[in-house]
Amino acid sequence: MGEGLDVARVRGLFPALADGFVHADGPAGSLVPESVAHAVGAAMRMPVAERGGVFPASGRSEALVSGARAAVADLVGGVPAGVVLGPNMTSLTWTFARALARTWRPGDDIVLSRLDHDANIRPWAQLAEAHGVLVRWAEVDIETGELPAWQYDELLTRRTRLVALTAASNAIGTCPDVAAISARAHDAGALTYVDAVQAAPHLFLDQARLGADFLAVSAYKWCGPHVGAVSAHPQLLAQLTPDKLVPAPDRVPDRFESGSHAVELLAGVPAAVDHLAGLCGGDEGTRRARLHRSMDAVARYERELFGQLTGGLHSMAHVQVLGSPIRSTPTVSFTVPRMRPRQVAAELARHGVCAWDGDHYARELFDAIGVNDDGGAVRLGLLHYNTVEEVDRLLDAIAALARPR
Ligand SMILES: Cc1ncc(COP(=O)(O)O)c(C=O)c1O
User: Fold this and answer.
1) Where are the alpha helices (DSSP H) in 188-336?
2) Average pLDDT for 170-183
3) Which residues form the Aminotransferase class V domain (predicted)?
4) Which residues fall within 8 angstroms of residue 20, CB to CB, at 6 or more apart?
């Protein structure tokens, strides 16, 4: 399986896999390869100082920031001058929500989706309320887990200022047709803010093809450190006025970045993108070209592995899988009647499986499905370091839940 991707070699890159657990908790955060840990450690050992000084240690910091911008630009198909860096996707989204809301007028509207992680809902919803802006909701088909693109024809108005949506659900994996929805949003004159946090570890991203005016990612989901980034066209950034301290730089993209950077963590961002680009497909061409080949191979490998997982889950009478989207990342949530998700996760942990339970911050989605009062659902997610044998172990552990204890 996984022609091209040598998973045994890949696993050797991750010291943390030595704990012997099946790490099916990737949607909450991936493990880190040695190359990333090394890059972060090296940045902490070398002389670095705050940016903006005239001595070499300060220049090193500047280089770490530039390196991280260039790496994220390669990852998403953006330009380094349009990459805003920050502690995580959530705080950057608050920053952008505040900046964009300054351009909204009472009576305008925005379109949010019930499929999204709360980080791409609440900042917009709260700022909309504060500015007298109406929120319209794109709904999920509860049976399939799809977010149909056609509904945007009715949701968009001539006063829609923003469409915020996810490129992949963190709870049930659904990949909506972002390009089709963005095209409709642009026809209506709205901007798009696309949450690619869960798409980035699994798919080759092309910001222009997705039609994402803003594209958000988070490096700890793709084997990097805890760093968030938003990519946008520098000209678009130049039109916005974020909150900022008076002496802080006014240039783009720096003016969206509050306070000092965690430069040692930024050192891990190029290492993580290099890791993804080097997973498979050789070392010919630019990093972006290598990423394309590598991520295509990763997607093929993960699709097969995920087929094994969902096939197994669907064959178990005591398991209820939430949704079955046509296009998805290898992420699935399920419930077991008469067992709380926390209890299921604890049983899986006893069998050596790391799995999350709860609402996974997909609060709107799980309210719509109706599982929140019962503790949400158990979520399993696969990454390029998971194996066929691990999925077998996982399925055995879930099958064991049906047997009397
Ligand atoms: C789809 C999605 N969006 C946003 C976030 C928030 O990311 P961060 O932790 O970088 O704020 C997450 C985190 O799990 C996520 O899965």
Assistant:
1) 207-210, 234-238, 263-266, 268-277, 287-314
2) 98
3) 25-394
4) 352
163 SS3 class: strand
Per-residue burial over 31-57, b = 16 or more CB atoms within 10 Å of its CB, e = otherwise: bbbebbbebbeebeeeebeebeeeeee
What is the full DSSP assignment across 201-236?
TTS---HHHHT-SEEEEEGGGTTS-S-EEEEE-HHH
CA distance 158 to 156: 7
- For 58, the 3-state DSSP assignment is helix
Residue 323 tokens, joined: 């949704």
In the chain, what are the domains?
A: 7-31+299-400 (3.90.1150.10), 38-275 (3.40.640.10)
Residue 170 Cβ contacting ligand 1 at under 6 Å: yes
Share of the chain above pLDDT 90, in %: 98
Question: Using one digit for the tens of pLDDT, what is the confidence trace for 104-158?
Answer: 999 999 999 999 999 999 999 999 999 999 999 999 999 999 999 999 999 999 9
Q: In the predicted model, is pLDDT for residue 392 greater than 70?
A: yes
**Beta strand pairing call for 228-232 and 214-218:** antiparallel
Distance from residue 316's CA to the centre of ligand 1 (Å):
30
Atom in ligand 1 nearest the alpha carbon of residue 360: 14
Any atom of ligand 1 within 6 Å of the Cβ of 387: no
Distance 34 CA to ligand 1 centre (A): 23
Given the CA of residue 92, which atom of ligand 1 is nearest to it? 11
Q: What is the pLDDT of residue 3?
A: 54
